[in-house]
Amino acid sequence: MAEVRAARPAEAEALTELVMRSKAYWGYGPEYLASCADELRIRPLDVTARRIVVAEDERGTVLGLASLDGSAPRASLGLLFVEPSVIGRGVGRLLYRDALRRAVELGVRGLVIDADPHAAGFYRAMGAVEAVGAVEASAEPGGPEGLVRFEVSPVPLAGWARAWTGGGRAVHVGNVAEFNAQFADASLEREQRAAHDYACLAAFYSPDPAALVLPRAVPRGWTELVCRQLGWTGVEVYDGLAEGGPGLSDAVRARPALAETLTGAGLPLVPWGRTRSFGMLADRPWREGELRYESKSAAHELFARILADGGHPGIVLPAQWRAGSRRAAVRLVAARAKAGESTVLKSEHGVGGSGTTVLTPGEVRAAGGARAVLRRLPRGPLLVEAFVGGPAGPDEDDAPRDLTYDGFVDAEGRLHEAGAALMDVRAGCYRGATVGPGAVPEWAEKPLLAFGQAVGRELAASGYRGWFDVDFVTDGAGRLAPTETNLRLTGPSIAFMVAARLDALRGAGHLVRIADRVELGARLPEAQLDELCAALARDCAELGAVFVPAIPTGAFDPAPWLGVLVAARSREVLDAAEALVRSEAEAVGAMFGRAGSGPVLEVEG
Asked: What is the pTM of this model?
């Protein structure tokens, strides 16, 4: 593995020779190479003045070099050259990312790159933004037609992301099923298998993982591609620890050597959510009632207390009633349907839309009445809530409907804000979210952030420590209605983590979308899944987007699917990348002569 170090003045001549070999790799004629030899010559004094670094292998062989010229706030990547024998092996990527890191440390906020046309594809793939027009054309025979100018906005890792894990690496514990199981909610029973799939999101519990702890076995190719796309190295994976049940933390504790490995390095342990078992593993005290606002009725009461104090004119709270029995729920739903009102039925601890049902008066009539509808719902306590109608009219489908606030309370009780996101919710089920510049409309952002902060302060005062979100729906008058809190990591939180990582890795301005369920046209063996994901990464890169497979194990389920992340710097490219991913994933079945989402190709073994 190559490492970067500062170049030495005594290496100037050898580095010049490397530069010329690298330039000649692209087939330029001798006259052109001679004409630019003086410009590309590295002199001993240049090594320090131009902040030149080299990448070298474990034997000390220099594989490439890069310079960072100029000073803050605007500098340039003057040189980036790689030995021809290792082009395409990641050396250029290593040097480029190191240059952005150093630029941030120097306070550079604008980095200019005048690239050889043959290197333009590399800089596009690294996230640099192409400026309009070529810089100049060569007057020498055999020279390039014109340099291509790129610009990058280097930024440090977001402040909230540094605070989340203390600015360092973390151990990620994918205890999704364990978190859900502690609530003993009937609506969650059918979700436990899916919870093990969603545990794959542990790869993204912070911007810089040191280790992943997972209940199910995951494909090796998946972790390798994720690490490549997000610039991670040295990530340990401990998987297959709790295939048959929800107790991941207990499974780790039952392996003392593994528990010591994970906890002994002093790195923070980050779970999906707090549980008593995780508290024992991480040596964190468990407080009774600290998750009480995970309850939808308790959250509703919290929202009501905040709104009673005033100060949130853009927020409206829908009425909610706790049904003491199924008979009481039937009466409430029937009365509302008779009055022409739609109703939302909720269980206390449903996730991702499980346990939530929206009933219109027409649906109640078509089912034969409220009693018939409720027979089909999971057993257990029900909450009856007034349905918040959204925008109506020709633009209804394009209007933002479901929004969320994400933040966390640190160990000292301080609130940190990650931001707001636009969620994709269909038929009451969460399907994904988009974060980044412009993802949330301006009119909604200010009241949403203000109310989310108010909830965070209340959670901190109650003793809660950890990640949380507040979900909202918009009504027809452009107001926001809070619907629940989640005291755990979430799909949007994963998008925030990846956005923070990509901004620090590739420059500012990434929109990131997590799509929880992309249907596959076939059930895939591991090797074919690796090939599909590698192809999607290449195809998205050609669009100017980044593809990261988020949930691979769903590809092995009887009804196969894939969770994905896509990122881009414009909404148009982001939408195009998602459409491409969905199209190519569905087309997988065509390779075997059959379309559809059923089991076309069985997993080997």
From this structure: 0.91
